[in-house]
Predict the structure.
Amino acid sequence: MSDGGVRDRVVVALDVGGTGMKCALVRPDGVVVRTERHPTDAARGPAAVVGTILDVAGGLADKARADGLTPIAVGIAVPGVVDEARGVAVWSANVGFRDVPLRDLTVARLGLPTALGHDVRVGGLAEARLGAGRGTGHVLFVAIGTGIAAAHVVDGMAAVGANGAAGEIGHILVRPDGPRCGCGRPGCLEAVASAAAIGRRYAELAGETTDAPVTVTAAEVAERAAAGEPLAGQVWQEAITALADGLASGQALFDVATIVLGGGLAQAGDGLLTPLRAALHERMTFHREPQLVAAALGDEAGCLGAALLALDAVGVRDHQEKR
Ligand SMILES: [Zn+2]
């Protein structure tokens, strides 16, 4: 039955990454009724990527209607710098966006209210409202992968910043004499403790004792550390210590109830959480110590967050959020 009533409404949600797009139709109660994945193929250039985004979003809206559902809004998450108020993808290294008015383009093509958001911020929104931070009100979501970025969510709303650049915890200075960061400055948290930095550091130290090039992922460093390999243990502990410094700064600024760790590094589970909790505990003086937990929604968080953004844009919040 399709009467346009509450039970039949869905939003179209897209999480656009450098390699793939995760897409879904999501009901106002947070239930996902259809998922799709499409390649981004960013090498084609930003115009072609935008074309694919519009085609995929339009296709999902059509499929919703064919299934007797009523699409009411679109939410799109993209990486990089995002001006959420103007709906513009300002800049992105891995998708190639430069000042793309993605919201207006989507409205023109689909005729539906559209919200544009930042991938990590909407991921944090989803973890705070539907995932590991649910019920705790003040949440800092920290995604640790190739880089490190965060979202500060208060009562279900993520702070965007004056210029769309809030949450860049990866560029907190933790080691003034440390390795140079991709942003150009030495010693950023991201240059010391991202998954990419952990792999690089291990390779650098291992390379001092062998002529063969060493290639290891952060996950392998975590495994070797857990198995008792001294070099891996040293590299892992350096990263944990730097992360604790960064998170302690985050806690001093935001006083959250829960820090949710996401991204690839969080898959190390207790191998990350247990020593990081201890190191964070050591750094708390008058601060209230936050709960430190792993993300619960995996790589669906961005897509669910895009759906939440779309629902917020049309003033619909039917999903249950305990605070
Ligand atoms: Zn930096």
Remarks:
- The chain has a mean pLDDT of 93.
- The pocket of zinc ion is lined by residues 171, 181, 183, 185, 188, 190 (CB under 6 Å).
- The radius of gyration is 20 Å.
